[in-house]
Amino acid sequence: YGDHRDLHTFPTRRSSDLGWMERADYEYAFHMGIAAGSASAFSEHLAVREEIEAVYKQMMQDKN
Q1: Which residues are CB-contacts of 49 (< 8 A; sequence separation ≥ 6)?
Q2: Exposed / middle / buried, residue 49 (Cβ in 10 Å: 0-12, 13-18, 19+)
Q3: pLDDT of residue 64 exceeding 60
């Protein structure tokens, strides 16, 4: 199946989990989950943390 990423690092779940673990904040975890899904939608493969953080930062700039 060519280049693939480890399923144990699926970013949507991992990012929202890390969002909760980092700040114990449901809103932050929710936004990180959205950012992970959005970043993956515009990536050839599943998005990596750096891509997710870039989308998250853009989302927060647009929010303000």
Answers
A1: 11, 15
A2: middle
A3: yes
Tens of pLDDT, residues 1-49: 444 454 444 555 555 566 677 778 888 888 888 998 999 998 888 888 8
Nearest to 5 by CA among 57, 56, 46: 46
Structure tokens at 57: 């930062």
Q: Cα torsion for 44, 32, 56, 52, to the nearest 10°?
A: -30
17 token code pair? 């989990």
Q: Torsion angle, CA of 1/42/37/62, rounded to 10 degrees?
A: 170
Place of tokens 């997710």: 52
